[in-house]
Amino acid sequence: MKWFISTFLALFSAILGPYMAPQQELAPGPPPEPASSAVEPEPENTRLYVLMYHHFVPEGWDCNTWTVTDVRFREDLQWLADHGYETVLPSWLAAGEPLPPKAVMLTLDDGYASNYWLAYPLLQEFESKAVISVVASSVDRGETYYLDWPKCQIMAQSGLVEIGSHTYDCHGTRGIKRGRGEAKADYEARVLPDLQASIDLIEENVGATPIFFAYPNGITDKWASGFIREHFSVTVTTKHGCADISEGLYGLKRCNVSMGVPLSKILPP
Prior knowledge:
Elements: H1 2-20, E1 47-53, E2 55-57, E3 67-69, H2 70-82, E4 86-87, H3 90-94, E5 103-110, H4 114-126, E6 130-134, H5 136-140, H6 149-157, E7 161-165, H7 184-206, E8 212-214, H8 222-231, E9 234-240, E10 243-244, E11 252-256
Parallel strand pairs: 1-5, 1-11, 2-3, 4-5, 5-6, 6-7, 8-9, 9-11
Antiparallel strand pairs: 1-10
Helix pairs in contact: 2-4, 7-8
């Protein structure tokens, strides 16, 4: 009988033993990684709209292609503010500061006295910034319709305005374009000292070296390009369109502003 019981227990243990043995616990694995919540950064903006103004007159006065009224300029600044545009200065570009998502640069050419009497108060009111490119000879001679150095200095010291060059006395019809048959040596003797004189006068009277140059009539010339690149960080032409600063800061395109075309037809909302 004992033999039977022991044999039965041995057989039972052999058959059911593996099922009765405690199961080995598996070591816990690493917790699942949480789903990423990072937002892809917005691509850096390189599009810059450069608006070109010249002379300003009171509302009701006659305007040509290069003239707008003070009321129209106010409307433009209001439109820019309402649509989220931020005005930038040449020094911002030269320093490599990133552009705001909707960037615009206001450029005022020739240095008319109306830039101070009519445009500057509106820049102050809207805290907008602009660069004024002066024909330095007109300013230096105190010509009636142009700015004088004290007014340039007042605006520059406000932080809202930078003073750029539009040549000393080389504006004219052809600007800095070489004359037909003009030798390079004669060209350099005529144009380069003129550009240097504009730089020296602005630096002396405004207290800041100009880094911005507006080509007269938008006309460039390779014979002056080396000098211009050496002395200026940002230049603009009159070629129409939106500038892309990823292509550099020289020869930027601009959009002329006139009474016949509202800003909403020039800039995207």
